[in-house]
Design a protein that fits this description.
The complex is a heterodimer of chains A (371) and B (400). Chain A is of the alpha/beta class and 371 residues long. Chain A has 12 helices and 12 strands. In chain A, the strands form 3 sheets. Chain A has a 7-stranded mixed β-sheet, sandwiched between helices. A 3-stranded antiparallel β-sheet of chain A has the order 10-11-12. In chain A, 55% of the residues are buried. Chain B folds into 2 domains: 241 residues, Aspartate Aminotransferase, domain 2 (3-Layer(aba) Sandwich); 129 residues, Aspartate Aminotransferase, domain 1, CATH 3.90.1150.
Chain lengths: 371, 400
């Protein structure tokens, strides 16, 4: 049996639909390919699904985060507290504006931002906190939003990987002043290309993001540029494909969660063998990636590879230790939680079209290794 | 077999009367066998951005342009921002750009946190005027960004000469200039590097956003290639596992969609034919419009010492009563586009640079007078006649 970590056949069932959409958009008499009616329809659907005041479709998840940080008014000299264990955009979107990413440590089990470390790092130059949800777990949004409120900071919620998660009845993406989802193909609501969205209840922020995504134009006066903007727009082909995939999204999420429930049931007893499964449950969870923390990671990884099971090590080096962000890693500061999870995380396959047999095979093989 | 006479008319009455500013619908349909086979390839591979089809398209574009390196990105604007950064443009550096162009030429400079400095244009080519460049490029200027608009390149001998004298890097906004060459060198390759935009209306257009950086410099190419993918080093193209690679520089995400690369590869096979067709159409427009005295300027290709070739991306005319003509054509169902109604130095986003009306008179005049007419390889003779007759009637009516 071969179970790749990143499945190459994500949209196998939608091949005919995708071809049809490409032809339909290419020959549509309106000849409108970017930010057209299909994009607007997708924005409306996601708005009603999340309850967001506004949803703005952008070129990618990173594009969405770039616009969110810019719209939040982050300027050179400002500090934004970001996770040390995460994907690069949490730091680059801040650094590229000339502002300072301040790295806070990760919780050694849940791998998301440690709120205590966040609070310690707040200075008079701090303008925002950017919690990111990591793998299957939402950041501790109740505490982080309390901290932000107490210090009058904005919360920019990187929900790139958490679309569909709900924490205490509030959807991911809706906890911050502004939030983002990513549709990169392997994400829970991944697509056949690049795309992402910004979500916000604040009409002024929404208006600004809409202008920023299309060169600072207001959507009425073409070629009049109110502010320096970006090109971060949404393609109609992708919008139509996402509209097609939306009705079955909940089903796929549920299947992922069922697989995760089963994995966690099988792996929780391995705790005394140096294996930490993510905390079980459904509150604040989206099983985009199922990642274990394993002391004998490299051994387990080889064992799985030999048995045809793909796995992936996310972020083996915490952001402040990567050459790109060394400039923003103050000497003497340490991130023990981030360093530990960088060394131990191992993600195993959890795609929705895995069969029960596939899932059992993965679980059996992991357990076998520790026998 | 269906009786042709019993089929509904292929084109509805309203469509026959109207002329869109742009369509590629018929060509897309004609190319569908090739497009769909490229799309099937993408689905077989299962990587939908930054994948194997993008790499195939990059290779084909490097061959077409003669560039040593072609780097696919999400759009032409991103291509400019990443190219500026890859060229080493630093926050605070000054980059001279023409005042009459699409916003991206200047916003890309601002997004790289450098400072745009404006220069006036030549009234015939609408590209940067080397004399104005000489005036505005002070000792603090690091680079100049000539922009090639509509149908021909900027005076590159003039720009390159000045750049040499003033020690300026030349970074070309060649977004519109696919197929244009200067002494055999493709636009974008005369200085440090250039960009291509595959925005749908472009000479080579996708059905969504897509763009590219072209350069002969290995160093610039290497830097641009990692900047587009979060600064990640090592293998990332056609390799999803590269998402966890170590980052060497604070980059961004500007990947090209493989579906767009599939469409572009299919269309690339027709590009030279399309360019020839565009030249015929431009000549036909000129033939029909040349005797209307109110038209102040038709597209005019300036003879150069260097060997150059026009590529008609846009057919642009100048008239005094531009807004009235635009309204008249719109009322007749004819699509137009005003490239560009406001010069960059007078845009609200650049008020802090302190410019005023009169600073760049050629750019300002172009903004008052220019209008683009319907123009694409599928434009029919009948549609063109209708556009030209409508323009003629507008002026006859004004004279009466």
């Amino acid at each position: 049996m071969t179970l790749p970590f990143f499945p190459p056949d994500l949209f196998e069932a939608d091949r005919d639909v995708l071809l049809k959409i490409v032809h339909e958009v290419g020959t549509d008499p309106r000849q409108k390919f970017i930010l057209g009616d299909r994009t607007a329809a997708l924005e409306r659907e996601l708005q009603s699904m999340t309850g967001a005041g506004d949803v703005i479709a952008c070129g990618s998840g990173t594009g969405a985060l770039t616009l969110a940080v810019h719209a939040a008014g982050i300027k050179p000299g400002d500090e934004v507290i970001v996770p040390a264990f995460c994907c690069q955009p949490v730091a680059s979107t801040v650094a590229n504006l000339g502002a300072t990413p301040v790295f806070a440590d990760a919780d050694p089990w849940t791998m998301v931002l440690d709120p205590d470390d966040v609070e310690r790092l707040i200075t008079e130059r701090t303008r925002a906190i950017m919690p990111a949800h990591v793998f299957s777990i939402m950041a501790d949004m109740p505490r982080l939003t309390q901290i932000a409120e107490r210090h009058e900071l904005m919360v920019i919620e990187d929900a790139a990987v958490a679309q569909g998660a709900v924490l205490d009845d509030r959807p991911a993406g809706m906890w911050g002043d502004i939030g983002v989802f990513s549709f990169f193909q392997v994400k829970a609501f991944g697509t056949a290309g690049e795309g992402g969205v910004v979500l916000t209840d604040d009409p002024a922020l929404a208006r600004r993001v809409r202008m920023l995504r299309n060169h600072g134009q207001d959507g009425v006066h073409r070629f009049l540029h109110h502010e320096i903007g970006y090109n971060s727009r949404f393609d109609e082909v992708i919008a139509e494909f996402q509209l097609h995939r939306l009705p079955t999204f909940a089903e796929r999420l549920e299947r992922r969660a069922q697989i995760a429930d089963y994995y966690s049931e099988r792996f929780t007893p391995l705790r005394d063998r140096g294996v930490l499964a993510p905390p079980a449950g459904r509150n604040g969870r989206c099983y985009y990636v199922y990642s274990l923390l394993v002391e004998r990671r490299e051994d387990l990884r080889s064992y799985l590879t030999e048995r045809g099971i793909g796995s992936h090590i996310y972020y083996p080096v915490p952001l402040p230790h990567q050459p790109a962000f060394a400039e923003w890693a103050p000497e003497g500061q340490v991130w023990p939680g981030a360093e530990q999870v960088s060394k131990r995380n191992l993600a195993i396959p959890i795609w929705p079209h895995m069969s029960d047999t596939d899932v059992e095979y993965v679980a059996d093989t992991v357990c076998e290794f520790f026998d | 077999m269906t009786d042709v006479a019993q089929q509904p008319p292929a084109v509805a009455e309203s469509d026959r009367d109207g002329v869109p500013f742009f369509t590629q619908s018929a060509q897309f349909d004609e190319l569908w066998p090739s497009i769909s086979s490229h799309v099937a390839d993408v689905m077989d591979r299962g990587k939908y951005s930054h994948g194997r089809k993008v790499a195939e398209f990059e290779k084909a574009m490097a061959a077409y342009t003669g560039a040593a390196h072609a780097i696919g990105v999400n759009n032409g604007t991103d291509a400019l921002v990443l190219l500026l950064r890859a060229c080493g443009i630093q926050p605070g550096d000054e980059v001279v750009v023409p005042a009459f162009t699409f916003m991206a030429s200047a916003s890309s400079v601002a997004l790289a946190r450098a400072r745009p400095v404006f220069a006036d244009i030549d009234p015939v080519t609408y590209a940067i005027d080397p004399e104005s460049l000489a005036k505005v490029a002070g000792s603090t200027a690091r680079a100049v960004m000539p922009v090639h608009l509509f149908c021909q390149m900027a005076d590159m001998d003039g720009v390159l000469g000045l750049a040499r004298d003033r020690d300026l890097m030349v970074i070309e906004d060649s977004a519109e200039a696919i197929g244009m060459r200067w002494n055999g060198k493709h636009a974008g390759l005369l200085g440090a590097g250039g960009v291509l935009s595959f925005f749908p209306t472009k000479t080579l257009g996708a059905i969504g956003d897509a763009g590219m950086i072209i350069t002969d410099s290995e160093e610039i190419a290497g830097q641009a290639a990692i900047l587009r993918h979060h600064g990640r080093m090592g293998k990332t193209v056609d390799h999803i596992a590269g998402i966890s690679n170590l980052s060497g520089v604070s980059g961004t995400n500007s990947k090209m969609d493989d579906l767009q690369a599939a469409v572009l590869l299919a269309k690339l096979g027709h590009l030279d034919e399309d360019i020839a067709r565009r030249a015929e159409l431009a000549a036909a427009y000129t033939e029909r419009l040349r005797d209307i005295p109110e038209i102040l300027r038709l597209p005019t290709v300036v003879p150069r010492e260097a060997e150059t070739n026009p590529v008609f991306y846009v057919y642009l005319i100048e008239v005094e009563e531009r807004d009235a003509l635009e309204a008249h054509l719109t009322a007749a169902g004819i699509g137009t586009e005003v490239y560009y109604p406001t010069p960059l130095h007078l845009q609200p986003c650049f008020t802090d640079l302190g410019h005023q009306e009169g600073d760049f008179p050629n750019a300002e005049a172009a903004c008052r007078r220019t209008i683009g007419l319907p123009f694409y390889p599928d434009l029919t003779q009948a549609a063109m006649d209708r556009v030209c007759d409508t323009i003629r009637r507008f002026f006859t009516g004004r004279r009466a």
